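From the shared-data thread, chain only:
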Amino acid sequence: MLPASFAMPTAVVLTVGGLITCFAGYRLFRIVLGIFGFVIGAMVTTQIIGAQSTIALVAAAVVGGLVGSVLMVAAYFIGVGLVGAGLAALGLNALWHAFKGDPPTVVLVVVCVLGALAALSIQRYVIIFGTALGGAWTTLFGGLALVGNSTARHAMSSTGAWILYPLDPLPNFWWTVPAWLVLGLLGAIVQMATSRKTETRAKKKIKN
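Structure, as C-alpha cells:
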C-alpha cells in the first residue's frame, strides 16, 4: 500500500523495470531480481504496517524494498526456483480458472515445488520465459498508470490489489491479457536471439 501521490513514480519504475525485464531479463537476471525484490519487499512491508503517515510509508517501502532486493540478488538460485514456481503457479491457475475455480492449496504447493525443481534443471529457458512474461505484465500495468488509467493507479495504493497478477485483468480492459501474452512472447524471442549471440561470443573468446 503506497500513498496515492506516489502512483506516478511507481508507474515509471514498473514500466522501465518491466521493459528491461521483458527484453533483457536473461542477460541482466541479477538486476531483474533486484528490481522485483525491491517491488515485492516494498509492497509486503507497506501492507504489513498498514495506514500510517506518508513519511512512515515511504521509509517502510524503501527499507523493505532494499531488504527484498538484497535477498533476491544474494539468493540467485532461489530466485531461479521462484521464477519456476511462479510460472508453474500461473499455469495451474490459468488451467483451473477455465473450470471457474481456484486450485486446492495442496495441489498448488506441489506444482510450485515441481516447477522450482524443473527451473533449476533448465535455467536458461525458465529465466527467459519467466522474465519475459513478468516484464510484459508490469510494463502494461505501469504504462496504463502512466497514461492516466485510474484503476491502475488506485491498485498501486490499494491493500487488496496484487498488481503482479496477470490472470486478474483490469475491469473493462480485457485486451490486457492477450497483449501481455504477445508482448511476453516478443520479449522471449528477443532474449533467445540476444542470449544466443552472447553465448557464441563468449565461446569464441574462450577459444581464442
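The radius of gyration is 18 Å.
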